[in-house]
Structure formats: structure tokens, C-alpha cells
Automatic annotation (TrEMBL):
The keyword Disulfide bond does not apply. PANTHER family: GLUTAMATE DEHYDROGENASE, GLUTAMATE DEHYDROGENASE 3-RELATED. InterPro entries: Aminoacid_DH-like_N_sf, Glu/Leu/Phe/Val/Trp_DH, Glu/Leu/Phe/Val/Trp_DH_C, Glu/Leu/Phe/Val/Trp_DH_dimer, Glu/Leu/Phe/Val_DH_AS, Glu_DH, NAD(P)-bd_dom_sf, NAD_bind_Glu_DH. It catalyses: L-glutamate + NADP(+) + H2O = 2-oxoglutarate + NH4(+) + NADPH + H(+); L-glutamate + NAD(+) + H2O = 2-oxoglutarate + NH4(+) + NADH + H(+). SUPFAM superfamilies: Aminoacid dehydrogenase-like, N-terminal domain, NAD(P)-binding Rossmann-fold domains. GO terms for molecular function: glutamate dehydrogenase (NAD+) activity; nucleotide binding. This is Glutamate dehydrogenase. Residues 178-358 form the Glutamate/phenylalanine/leucine/valine/L-tryptophan dehydrogenase C-terminal domain.
Length: 358
């Protein structure tokens, strides 16, 4: 099922459970605005290349629209629409005064040089600058983007509108970013996991975790879970997957990833097939990469008793049904990964007040 169909289906189920008025249900499914722009840049060798960028602004009933910008080859209008809608529900669940939006560019950031990424980000910002703003729509990092990307957006936006640090969150600290934003989504994943386990009379200590994705969210979650006494027994990223049933030495893995730009080749664990990561034996599975990875093809083989959705919409509705019949408890994305946007809110509040604690 595609991302938007899955997100709409979940929303309709929730609307029915809430007894939501049918007109309200219909209007909440329709995004406020969908933006599509061509971003043409010269590559470092002088050839011209064109990418398609999107920003979907889903809803602003509760405040400025808020959500990340993703650079990934699979970015398409359906995916961005689904992610924008999820941001509306997420900011409401976290009870912060925002609506929802999401953006992205269909590109492979790993194949672009730093200067190509900068040119692409600046052209994208030139095309959307009059549709984002500190009280209208506030972007942040997502997959394939980071504080540097936010710094380029801030700089380009400020050329048109004057210095406006509150136009993006997840910025470098020196530009008004918030201490802790980098770790916030992973830290929120730990807090959410602790609360869920507590409800089941358990704690993180000694639980066996498998984590798919070792970028911002996955690596911070791994580090904090390791520090809290959890045992991370397998992790994967695009380079490969590794496993150690006695628990991976996460600080050593972080050093390896910094040097080699991936988990592949880490000497302290065994290499396994990336395709088997979600079905590895564990107590708690944390998908922290792409959407739709848990689906009817693999749901029956999942061994975890708990799934913490650190990624956005990692579980397809068909898999939801299979897993619920198996008694697997799933902590939904709009709660489990809301720590990032919560700290983004504090960053934005500091910026609009001109408050800087250096
Ligand atoms: N950043 C944030 O604050 C928030 C992020 N999220 C969600 O969390 C998820 C991860 O985002 P984030 O950590 O920021 O992104 P990053 O780009 O920092 O990291 C993504 C990670 O996923 C890996 N990856 C990509 N494709 C695959 C694959 N097919 N199999 C295994 N691993 C893969 C990447 O590998 P490699 O590095 O080798 O390419 C990387 O390790 C996304 O769903 C995002 O929407 C949700 C809330 C907030
Ligand atoms: O920090 C933010 O504003 C948005 C984070 C995000 O994109 C997400 O929660 O999926």
C-alpha cells in the first residue's frame, strides 16, 4: 500500500473511533497547499542537472506548519503528502502549537558533493522562500538533511526576508540552534520506550533491541539505549547489517561509523543480510529509516514483542493487522518520534523571542 493510502486509512480509522464529524474528516484529509518545484543546478563538472522538490503544507489550524525536509531518491508527492499529514497529527499529539508540513527533494545526497548539495538547497529555497516563514511554515532536518542544510536554507531565506533564524529549526548552535535538538528524536524514542515498558512491568535494562537505520535517529537511540542498560543486538544502515547476540559495543560502533561512513566492516560484530534485520530475534524492534518496511511480506516473521516506530510510517496497515493478531505491541510514530519536533518548538520559541544562551 502506498504511503498516502496507508496514512489516510489510519486517519479514517481514528476518525471513526473519535466519532469525528464527516465534513471535518474530509477537510482534514485534504492538504492546505502542495508545492512542486524544479531545481536545476550545475554539477561540479559543469553539466546541468535537474531535481524535483516538494513542500506539502497539510494543516495550520493549530499554528505554523512544521516538518522536516528529506533528501532521498524515493521522495515523491504521495510520500511527502503522507509525511506532512503525519506532522499535523504529531504536533497535536505532542500538544505543541503547530500544524503539519513536510518537504523533500528526489535525489541521492550520498552521490552529491558538499558544494552540489549547497547549490541544490539554495535553489530549492529560492523557489519556496515566499511560501515558508517563521509564522507560516518552519522546516527542519529529516532523512538525508542535517544542521548544515538548515544553515543554507536560513542564509538563502534571509537574503530575501532579512535575518530570520526562526525560519528553520535543527540549525547549528552558532546560528541559534538548540542544544539537544540533534539527540532529541532518539532521546524521545528512549523515553517513549521506557514509558511503554513500565506499563508492561518491564525496564530497558537487559532488553534486546534491533535497530534498522543508524543515522541521526537510529544512532542516538542506540547510544542512549546502550547507556540505559539495553542490549543492542543488531543494527543496519544502507552499507549493511551487523549482529552480536551479546550486545554490540555501541560507542565503538559510533567511532567506526564516523571513520567508515557505515556499519559495514565493524570488527566487533558479525555481518548479516540487511534483508533479515527486521526479523532478527529480539525483544524490541526499532525501525529508524524508511516508511513501509514492515509489511505483509515480513510481518509474520517478526519476533519482537514490541515495535517502537522511530521512523515515520514504518508499519503498513496490513502488517498492523497481522502483528496485532500476534499480540505485538506497536508504539506509533506520531508519539514515539515526537521528541524531535518538541525540541524544534523550543528552538523556535527562543528564536522568535531573540533569546540566545551562548
Ligand atoms: N531527524 C529527526 O529529527 C526525525 C526523523 N524522523 C524519522 O526517522 C527516520 C530516520 O531519519 P534520520 O535518522 O533523521 O535520517 P538520517 O538520514 O540521519 O538516517 C537515515 C538512516 O537510515 C539508513 N537507511 C536508509 N535506507 C535504508 C535501508 N533501506 N535499510 C537500512 N537503513 C537504511 C541510512 O543509511 P546511510 O546513512 O548508510 O544512508 C541512515 O543510517 C525517518 O523516517 C525520519 O522521517 C522522525 C522524527 C524526527
Ligand atoms: O523538527 C521538526 O520540525 C520536524 C521533525 C520531523 O520532520 C518529524 O518529526 O518527522
Amino acid at each position: 500500500m502506498n504511503a498516502l493510502a496507508a496514512t489516510n486509512r489510519n486517519f479514517k480509522l481514528a476518525a471513526r473511533l473519535l466519532g469525528l464529524d464527516s465534513k471535518l474528516e474530509k477537510s482534514l484529509l485534504i492538504p492546505f497547499r502542495e508545492i512542486k518545484v524544479e531545481c536545476t543546478i550545475p554539477k561540479d563538472d559543469g553539466t546541468l542537472v535537474s531535481y524535483v522538490g516538494f513542500r506539502v503544507q497539510h494543516d495550520n489550524a493549530r499554528g505554523p506548519m512544521k516538518g522536516g525536509i528529506r533528501y532521498h531518491p524515493e521522495v515523491d508527492p504521495d510520500e511527502v503528502n503522507a509525511l506532512a499529514q503525519l506532522m499535523t497529527w504529531k504536533t497535536a499529539v505532542a500538544n505543541i502549537p503547530y500544524g503539519g508540513a513536510k518537504g523533500g527533494i528526489g535525489c541521492n545526497p550520498g552521490e552529491l558533493s558538499i558544494s552540489e548539495l549547497e547549490r541544490l538547497t539554495r535553489v530549492f529555497t529560492q523557489k519556496i522562500h515566499d511560501l515558508i516563514g517563521i509564522h507560516t511554515d518552519v522546516p527542519a532536518p529529516d532523512m538525508g538533511t542535517n544542521p548544515q542544510t538548515m544553515a543554507w536554507i536560513l542564509d538563502e531565506y534571509s537574503k530575501f526576508h532579512g535575518y530570520s533564524p526562526a525560519v528553520v529549526t535543527g540549525k547549528p548552535i552558532d546560528l541559534g540552534g538548540s542544544l539537544g535538538r540533534d539527540a532529541a528524536t532518539g532521546r524521545g524514542v528512549l523515553f517513549a520506550t521506557e514509558a511503554l515498558l513500565n506499563d508492561h512491568g518491564k525496564s530497558v535494562t537487559g532488553q534486546r533491541f534491533v535497530i534498522q537505520g543508524f543515522g541521526n535517529v537510529g544512532s542516538w537511540a542506540a547510544q542512549l539505549i546502550h547507556e540505559a542498560g539495553g542490549k543492542v543486538v543488531a543494527v543496519s544502515d544502507i552499507s549493511g547489517a551487523i549482529k552480536d547476540k551479546n550486545g554490540i559495543d555501541i560507542p565503538a560502533l559510533l567511532r567506526h561509523v564516523k571513520e567508515h561512513r557505515g556499519v559495514k566492516g565493524f570488527g566487533g560484530a558479525n555481518a548479516i543480510e540487511s534483508s533479515s534485520i527486521l526479523t532478527e530475534d529480539c525483544d524490541i524492534l526499532i525501525p529508524a529509516a524508511l516508511g513501509g518496511v514492515i509489511n505483509r511480506e515480513n510481518a509474520n516473521d517478526i519476533k519482537a514483542k514490541f515495535i517502537i516506530e522511530a521512523a515515520n510510517h514504518p508499519t503498513d496497515p496490513e502488517a498492523d493487522e497481522i502483528l496485532s493478531k500476534k499480540g505485538v505491541v506497536i508504539l506509533p510514530d506520531i508519539f514515539a518520534n515526537s521528541g524531535g519536533v518538541t525540541v524544534s518548538y523550543f528552538e523556535w520559541v527562543q528564536n522568535i523571542q531573540g533569546l540566545y544562551v551562548g
